[in-house]
Design goal:
eight-stranded mixed beta sheet
């Protein structure tokens, strides 16, 4: 017979004291409760909403941690970047701009074979010289007809030619440069990687093929000569060509003729002609074209009448009307001809002088 309080039929199966021992080892901790798919509504919720006793909870999201997602994203970005660079630039090294080379220069003085002819009439001097048909100033440096290349547009080619012309005009036709101490008009047109060489040339000039100011520009000694006529005669050519997919080169070959007289002598003094033949090679990459600057890589200069005994690296000291050279060169050299002189000092051909 059951004890007091027990049902007449005995303790029901699953009730207290019945199958309770079977579940005593089961612990319903917080994580178990949170993971339950069914959740009982509160008594108030069941009264207010007439809702069922339980509701179904959304399943827990068991995805990657935030740190893992960031790591996966970074790996994907790095892989995509590497793949793009490999496809977009398969020959990257071949397309990179060439390093800026130092200027290689040669300055060859040309000594007269006799007395330097002169006249008080500069127009007569020009008229009786090979420069009779030369144009005056920048008009003697016309731009050629230009065409696009495989990797450079018409505009880029014209830009390169224009910068080269600007350099030629500033370095050989500006009076403040030619018979003065101004160098900035020329310096501002150079690629920044050549400025150290340029500054060293003027700070410590030397005839070493790298640091002669007269390799960069035409520069007379203002203590000895002045311009008798500011209308400098010029004739020559400009041409552009693509050397690789990232580089344009411009070649300039011009002859300049100056009428000079002794400094401070006045307009009645006899003047004489001085000739400078310059062959310049410019290089341009796309940065140079954008910044309107040039790399001057070769400068080949013949100038006379000069004395071979004088130093022509820093400044040109022309022989003027009535003067003769103390020492001549090994062979006659005509700066008006198209051939190149090879001597370190040449002899100015008789036909290169005006016949007065």
């Amino acid at each position: 017979m059951g004890g007091p309080g027990d049902p007449p039929e005995g303790t029901p199966e699953g009730g207290p004291g019945g199958g309770e021992e079977e579940y005593r080892s089961v612990v319903f901790d917080e994580s178990f409760v949170r993971a339950a798919r069914l959740q009982e509504f509160s008594a108030q919720e069941r009264i207010d909403d007439h809702a069922p006793a339980v509701r179904r909870r959304p399943p827990l999201r068991r995805g990657l941690s935030r740190q893992a997602l960031i790591l996966v994203l970074l790996i994907a970005v790095a892989f995509g970047t590497a793949l793009y660079m490999g496809v977009r630039h398969p020959n990257r090294d071949a397309a990179d701009p060439q390093p800026v080379e130092p200027l290689r220069m040669t300055v060859i003085p040309l000594a007269p074979q006799g007395e330097v002819p002169g006249s008080t009439d500069t127009e007569s001097l020009y008229a009786h010289s090979p420069a009779a048909q030369y144009r005056v100033g920048a008009e003697g440096v016309p731009l050629p007809a230009s065409r696009r290349t495989a990797n450079f547009s018409d505009g880029q080619v014209v830009n390169a030619l224009t910068i080269a012309k600007d350099y030629i005009v500033r370095s050989a036709l500006y009076p403040e440069v030619v018979v003065g101490d101004q160098v900035r008009p020329v310096r501002v047109l150079l690629d920044p990687d050549q400025l150290d060489q340029f500054d060293q040339s003027f700070g410590h000039p030397t005839a070493d093929g790298r640091h002669a100011p007269t390799g960069w520009l035409v520069r007379f000694d203002p203590n000895s000569v002045e311009l008798a006529d500011r209308k400098i005669r010029v004739q020559g050519t400009l041409s552009a060509a693509e050397t690789d997919s990232s580089t344009l080169e411009v070649t300039a070959d011009h002859t300049f003729v100056y009428a000079l007289r002794p400094a401070g002598s006045g307009p009645k003094a006899e003047a004489s002609l001085f000739t400078v033949r310059r062959e310049l090679h410019f290089r341009f990459d796309r940065d140079d074209l954008r910044m309107r600057q040039a790399q001057l890589i070769v400068s080949y200069v013949q100038a006379g009448p000069l004395s071979c005994a004088d130093d022509s690296a820093n400044r040109l000291r022309p022989l003027l009307a009535g003067q003769t050279a103390k020492a001549g060169g090994p062979a006659g050299t005509d700066p008006y001809a198209t051939g190149n002189a090879t001597a370190l000092c040449g002899s100015l051909a008789a036909g290169a002088q005006p016949k007065v």
